[in-house]
Amino acid sequence: MPSIDSVKVAVRVRPFSQREKDAGSQCVISVNANSTSICDPKNPGHVKTFTFDLAYWSHSGFLKDEDGRLVSTGSDSRYAGQREIFCDLGQGVLDSAWQGYNATLLAYGQTGSGKSYSMIGCGADRGIIPIMCEELFKAIQNQEQNKQYQVTFSMLEIYNEQVIDLLSKTKKRGGLKVREDHQQGFYVDGLKQVPCDSYAQIERLMEQGTKIRTTASTSMNVTSSRSHMVITIQFKQIFLDEEITKQSVINLVDLAGSERQKSSGSEGDRLREGTHVNLSLTMLGNVISALAEMAVGKKVLHIPYRDSVLTKLLQSALGGNSKTIMIAAISPADMCYEETLSTLRYAERTKKIKNKAVINASPTEKLIRELKAENNKLLSRLAGLTNSGKAVAAETKELQCLLAENERHTQTIQVTWESQLEEARKEWEQQYAAITQERRMMETFPYLLNINEDPQLSGVLKHFIQDGASDVGQSTSNAIVLKGLGIMDKQATFTNTDGKVAITPWDKSTVIVNGVPVTVKTKLQHLDRIILGSNSAYLYIGPPAERTNEDLLRYDYDFFQSELAAADGFSVDKLGAVSNKDGKPDPSVLAVFHDYIKLMPLVAEASQMSEELKKDLKFELKVKNLASSDSRGYDLQKEIIVKVMHKITKQVWVWSKAKFINRKFLMEELYQHFLDGEDVHVEQDSDPFWDPVEVIHLGSAHIWLQSLAYCMKLEEQTELLNFEGQEEAIVLINVVPCSSDGRAFEEDDMVIDPLELLGRQIDFQIHIVQCLGVRWLRDDPDRGIQIGYRFYDLPRSVYTKPVWKNVNPKIEERTRFSAFTVSHDFLNYLQKNALIVDLWGLQEGCTELDCSLQGCSVTSEGTIIVDSPKDLNAYDVSLDAPNQMSKLYMKLLKLEQETELLRDINRALREENIFLKEQLKKWDTGHHENKNMKPPHKWTIKMTKPPLSSEGTDQLCRHRTSYDSEFAKALKVEDNLQMLRLFTERQSCMLKDFGEQLESSICKLKNDVALIVKKKRESIAYSKH
């Protein structure tokens, strides 16, 4: 009977990374027993909780012991270390294998979430795989003598739908093929499976696989975070006495980073999903979703196992013959909220999958039993023929041949394991000798130590610099052979003279030492950082006499890139990362800095691929909004963009970070075909290096509008600055207030207080006169420009007509605007905001910006209407529309004024009431106030808006006068305290009545406004019919 079990799912929360610490990240994850909760950093009250089989808190409560392992700080710590993870998960895999079940352990999560740390480990802090292999052989040694155990080990990588054997020194073009067998299922044809009889042998094989993976990552430009690594251990138990064999296949899978398409994919790109890099992970998600729906009773017609290499190999692990565990690794940082939430949802679907695991019988042992049974039958037949005495020589000979063939086949099957094991031992001994030789050389010579983006692949390769001269490059004749982007046949020469090492670059080769490009012979010091070509990074380890006990782990990949950025003048300080308020780093700016250094090597690689493929493109990193601000002068959110320029045509494109990363993977796919010697010609629409020509944003200028609030003319000559604060051009622009007939205002028309404009109509013109010294046109005179701006509440920007081939183009475009009844918001906009004027660059073949006024409310004279209610701004205004709208605005304005006046009176009455209560307290304590005491000046009602009518004002004044007179009478009767109390109570009742009247007025105001809007909509609907 099969064992029906759900996939077991565990979640592990890692500590903050250095990047997250630098960015001041907050923890958004909490773990309680088996529940994991995540809090939305943008909406702290929004918390989602997920329940899994296991949840591990590895975020805090740990320290590093003397052996370099992370351990719990004490009994009160919740920290879950590597050993605890193994006991719950790895031991479960081993137990299943001992019982004869297939077992699978999957590690899922975004890049940098701790998948590889949990699976492989780091240094002395070993992960599940090495601990499990060691425990397996420990258990084998303690078993009975009448059992035989066979362990084989294989290690492969899946990248871009190609299978790479990590234990084979020869790479097969196009990768290994995945085939299907009726009994075996899907398998990798030609995959090297190494017999092992000790953990030390597996440890060396893992080192060998990692070394091959690192070499491939460098030479083939493969990004390890985008590849899946699969370790397979075939474990066979042969019970000699009972002639029973149990066989288990253990799959240990470190999946590629699960970044969503939005953050690192192809959103907004015309080439969507154009590469196979993400295919396996996408198809795995589809398989899991289909199986999850099937588990809850939904009808599923097809499960797409065959749609990718990964899902083919994991068919038995998901919904098949396997006991499966998935560990979901997550980041606790708020900056990774979306990715972490996506991982938790993925894990929640996975736990619904049902597997049907069975104890496996070995086909080979079954064949042996069948052969033995057939031999027994043959022997019986031979004995029968002999006893009968018949002359059947021919039949006897045939039976004897069959018997001999079966015996040979049986012996071959039984001997194969021993011979394979012996062959593996010889190979292991050769590798061990090479490792011993390498260690001796490390103690004698200086060497280069590779540094990789993936910490698991750093420090794997060592290139020794022996005495004399050692050439380095792609040529096999060099002492040090390197493959990779930008590596020439002869890249550089190292000279080692009496323990003093120097590097000399060859012509046109790229050599960078400590972030600075070098072109002449340069002496090296211990722990110098060297970059060869586009991005082959190495740490120089000096001769033994120069070495110290300094921790080499600090010189990681990010250290190299930060140093390179600093040498180029790019730093956190340049981004303005320090807040003026508290002096602490601005997290958003630090995040941009880390994005910048992360993309630096990718941009260098893209430029190198373009050069080798003869695409003539140059890629350059830029920080958008580095020196830009919004209309109120506040800094805009900074983000990374990539500027792309064609070296010959001078055409320019600007790509977002997401678009560039997607294109980079497409470029890698094309470049791999180039390395394989294939035809790399592609149609233009499918070329990742090509894009249609587009309009480019060059820069902007701020025109402050405060003068318009005083009806003063503004004549401005200002710089148009690009993202980096550099001048792109100078623009001459006038903002001229005018009358309704277009007459420009003079000094006599100026207002002293902008509030005088409230409720009135204001007209003005924006006159763009000329642009001077346009750098865009100086670089290429065949280009053009357009200028655009968006004023206040306009639904779209207003653009000038295109001007081509003129460095100092005259624009001479006037646009008239009108606000029929000026509102408070509009006045506030004029006094506190700037008009942002944008300069756009046109290129030959691009689509010009639409300079029509479609979508704006425009009068028959061509005046654009601003400061209009949204409900009334959804259609083109007819000839008599201004008068209708003006009446509506006036009514709304009067209602606003009534409400404001009532609120002022209410505030004054409340102050009077408070004052009277204080006076009563004084009277109660026997302290009498002076007869001539005057009310405080704050009783006076401050009129922020003029009253609606003189009649309403007189009525309110009469009420106010009566209040004062009655209060005066009460004060004159000093001895009659009771009378004063009665007066105060009467005033309180009147105040309450007035409050109710105010609320009623406000309600009436809302109803009137709603009625006006309703009527206007009916009018619009009627006019359309």
TrEMBL record:
Coiled coil: none annotated. It is found in: Mitochondrion membrane. One of its GO terms (molecular function) is microtubule binding. It is a peripheral membrane protein. ATP binds at G109, Q110, T111, G112, S113, G114, K115, S116. Keywords: ATP-binding, Coiled coil, Membrane, Mitochondrion, Motor protein, Nucleotide-binding, Transport. Residues 6-353 form the Kinesin motor domain. GO terms for cellular component: mitochondrial membrane. InterPro entries: FHA_dom, Kinesin-like_KIF1-typ, Kinesin_motor_CS, Kinesin_motor_dom, Kinesin_motor_dom_sf, P-loop_NTPase, SMAD_FHA_dom_sf. The keyword Nucleotide-binding applies. GO terms for biological process: microtubule-based movement. Belongs to the TRAFAC class myosin-kinesin ATPase superfamily. Kinesin family. Microtubule-dependent motor protein required for mitochondrion morphology and transport of mitochondria in neuronal cells. This is Kinesin-like protein 6. It comes from Alligator mississippiensis (American alligator).
